[in-house]
Design brief:
Elements lengths: L2 H4 L4 H4 L7 H7 L2 H13 L5 H17 L4 E5 L11 E3 L1 E3 L5 E3 L3 H5 E2 L19 E5 L6 E3 L2 E10 L8 H21 L8 E15 H4 L3 H6 L24 H16 L4 E6 L5 E6 L2 E2 H21 L2 E4 L12 E10 L16 H16 L1 H6 L4 H6 L15 H13 L5 H9 L7 H4 L9 E3 L4 E7 L5 H22 L5 H16 L11 H9 L8 H4 L6 H9 L5 H55 L6 H28 L9 H29 L10 H6 L2
Parallel strand pairs: 1-8
Antiparallel strand pairs: 1-2, 3-4, 5-6, 6-8, 7-8, 9-11, 9-12, 9-13, 9-14, 10-11, 14-16, 15-16
Helix pairs in contact: 4-5, 7-18, 10-11, 12-18, 12-19, 15-19, 23-24, 23-25, 24-25
Bound molecules: adenosine-5'-diphosphate and magnesium ion.
Length: 704
């Protein structure tokens, strides 16, 4: 790695230096080829093979100059990570040498053996063929020895097997419906509407040598046990705290690596929990933001390894302190860059903004279940509703001003609130709306933050594709309904007001500006009839509700079979996760913890009898009490290990019905894992630290 020297180069020069971006294309492609490629990228026009050949050749020359020997179609299968298979550019010549070649056909289409990727039963294993198709809207890049070509992935018979295809479809669909609305407001020039996303990424950094000693971290990404350290996050001294040198060095190299890949890494800081940090990029088109977030997670892990660190992306690596999430900042803008969720200086008079806002309100209320489902995973179940994370109940924060505007419309009275409020603050600098709402609610799962929505329920490890597919499709559906209603309206202002009034009457229950972390809200939400779906197993079956199938099928995002496949895949992943956790904990108990406790209780017993042998008068109450307590825990842990193994052998764990298996895991395995943890943590506290087989929370969280 060329790290140290990189900083001496300037950042603008470094930025995108590993990306086959617009500059490179302009420089290296013949004019007409560049033009038709641009048309494909900007307007979705089909690409012909002659153009593809020219692009492929230019890409290959450029990549080879950057040191690449291989290319790979890079895709995002249903398991939420990325996949790659590398082919070299070599092509034999008649005289026994090789030349470097790359054709348009190879650029456009790949044929990875698809049989080992999750497909939720869509593609029988004997029918292994899958196709990858170049996505020219996301730039190719060089990483390591390879040219990476972002691609979509589908089966031989055309079923979608990845996350990129539906995301692109949902973006196009939203664009179509939003443009209809713009036309109603007299905008004839906008051709496309684009959804933008800036995903803030949280993560933990721990020492690799300590990590290596913990099977739970290695196999499951989280600690399955571990007594709390004397200090957690209660001093509130880590959030935005000064960054330690080793972490700073990691962050610096991370920024450089991301910049090279054209990723707009912008903000870095310490997060609330000890050893927890965050990176936020500048927002970009959803599709690219998704690719970039996948890359960011991967680069984080790789750079950490070079610093003797491990980057934990699990949603809840440590009990008792904050888990990690991902904040999906989402907005909608025109192709000329006008943000359609920007209320401007006078939101009350910004009818178009209010209409878009109403679409989001209605959509979030009607599809609470889908938003919850879009963030469902075994890992995120530990986080939602726990320390400093939004609850599993979907609601929306709009802030006082917007809520007041909407309430005025609902009551059909003129809105007068703004001026008054500004006078009250006594602020002389004119506070426009975005300033007003900056003092915002951090406890809402879905918060309006001035000119965008911040969806905060995402877990740190998941791909942002699914939440954005949901958001885009839901918004597209509501805009479609609004456009159907308003097209041809002769009294637009009045009709929009009436529509917004109706949306408020029917959907304002979803708006909640208070403390989303409080128990009072959980009860209030229930009274309002909002869905409370605490776990993956509770929410996921609703994915296949008729209204949701209707939504995705009518917008041509998924077929019903593709939805069933997705449901199967997520449930299967949940079951597999819990199985791995169960097996890991069982082996930790049997191979490390029980032997350690047994050795120590044996030693205590020998000490006690040795003392007694010297003289019965020598006090040994402390060791006797400790021996009794630890021996009881030892028996308990052994019994729990036996019981866990038995539970894991239950046929329901392997049931072909994923809901049966997942329900069993939730109801039978999780409580057992938690009970074991309690007993083990108690034993840890009673054992000499040198005799406990694993690095402690204190070491893991405070030693970097
Ligand atoms: P914070 O939420 O920490 O106060 P910011 O308001 O600066 O931070 O923004 C957080 C994230 O929101 C950043 O990643 C930023 O790029 C992103 N963001 C800002 N504007 C938009 C937008 N119009 N669309 C999508 N994301 C946006
Ligand atoms: Mg934020």
């Amino acid at each position: 790695m060329e790290t140290g020297t990189e900083t001496r180069r300037n950042v603008p020069q470094l930025f995108g230096s590993a990306v086959f971006n617009d500059d490179v294309m302009q420089e290296r492609l013949p004019k007409d080829v560049y033009k038709s490629l641009r048309k494909t990228i900007d307007e979705g026009k089909d690409l012909d093979l002659a153009v593809a050949n020219a692009v492929a050749n230019a890409m290959k020359d450029w990549a080879v100059e950057k040191g690449a020997t291989h290319y790979t179609h890079w895709f995002q299968p249903l398991n939420g990570i990325t996949a790659e298979k590398h082919d070299s550019f070599i092509s034999p010549t008649s005289d026994g040498r090789v030349i470097m070649q790359f054709s348009g056909k190879e650029l456009i289409k790949g044929e990875p053996d698809a049989s080992s990727f999750p497909s939720g039963g869509l593609r029988a294993t004997f029918e292994a063929r899958g196709y990858t198709a170049w996505d020219p809207t996301s730039y190719a890049f060089v990483k390591g020895d390879s040219l990476y070509i972002p691609t979509a992935f589908c089966s031989y018979s055309g079923e979608v097997l990845d996350k990129k295809t539906p995301l692109l479809r949902s973006m196009e669909d939203l664009s179509r419906q939003a443009v209809r609305i713009l036309r109603i407001f007299g905008d004839q020039k906008t051709k496309r509407v684009i959804t933008t996303v800036g995903p803030e990424q949280e993560y933990f950094l721990i020492d690799k040598a300590l990590y290596d000693q913990r099977p739970d971290l290695r196999f499951t990404g989280r600690t399955l046990l571990g007594a709390k350290a004397p200090k957690g996050q209660e001093m509130e001294d880590h959030y935005y705290g000064s960054i330690k040198p080793r972490v700073a060095a990691f962050m610096k190299e991370l920024d450089e690596e991301l910049w090279k890949l054209g990723i707009l890494a912008k903000t870095k800081h310490n997060e609330v929990a000890p050893a927890q940090h965050e990176l936020a990029p500048i927002f970009t088109t959803t599709n690219i933001a998704t690719d970039h977030n996948q890359l960011t997670m991967e680069v984080m892990k790789n750079v950490a390894a070079r610093h003797g660190l491990i980057c934990l992306l699990h949603e809840k690596p440590f009990e008792g302190v904050n888990g990690s999430g991902k904040h999906n900042n989402w907005s909608v803008s025109t192709d000329s860059g006008e943000n359609l969720l920007d209320p401007g200086k006078e939101p009350a008079k910004n009818t178009r903004f209010l209409l878009f806002l109403a679409a989001v309100i209605k959509g979030v209320d009607e599809y609470q279940d889908l938003l919850r489902i879009s963030v469902a995973s075994a890992g995120n179940d530990h986080r939602l509703g726990a320390n400093e994370a939004p609850p599993a109940i979907v609601s929306m924060f709009l802030g006082d001003e917007l809520t007041a505007i909407l309430e005025a419309i609902e009551a059909d009275v003129p809105y007068t609130g703004v001026e008054q409020k500004k006078l009250e603050t006594g602020v002389h600098v004119l506070p426009d709306l975005s300033m007003d709402t900056t003092d915002r609610n951090r406890t809402s799962p879905f918060a309006f933050t001035g000119n965008k929505f911040e969806f905060r329920m995402l877990g740190s490890a998941i791909s942002i594709a699914c939440p954005n597919i949901m958001l885009n499709t839901i918004a597209a559906e509501e805009l479609r309904q609004f456009a159907d209603e308003l097209e041809g309206s002769a009294h637009l202002e009045a009709d929009v007001r009436r529509l917004v009034r109706r949306v408020m009457q029917e959907h304002k229950r979803i708006i909640f500006n208070g403390d989303g972390y409080s128990q009072a809200w959980v009860e209030e939400a229930r009274r309002r009839g909002l869905l409370d779906l605490p776990t993956t197993v509770d929410c996921l079956p609703r994915y296949l509700d008729q209204k949701n199938i209707q939504l995705f099928v009518s917008h041509k995002i998924y077929t019903e079979a593709e939805m069933e496949a997705r449901y199967e895949t997520i449930m299967e992943e949940y079951v597999k996760t819990l199985n791995i956790e169960g097996l890991t904990l069982s082996s930790m108990l049997r191979q490390d913890i029980l032997p350690a406790v047994g050795a120590y209780t044996g030693e205590l017993a020998r000490n006690i009898s040795a003392k007694r042998a010297v003289s019965p008068q020598i006090p040994c109450a402390a060791q006797t009490a400790l021996l009794a307590r630890l021996s009881a825990l030892e028996d308990e842990l052994f019994a729990q290990a036996e019981d866990l193994d038995q539970a894991m052998a239950d046929p329901r764990v392997k049931s072909a019905n994923v809901l049966t298996a997942a329900t069993y895991c939730k109801e039978e395995l999780i409580p057992r894992l938690e009970a074991i943890r309690q007993a083990a943590d108690q034993a840890e506290l009673d054992m000499p630290s040198a005799r406990w087989p694993y690095p402690t929370y204190a070491q893991l969280m405070f030693q970097v």
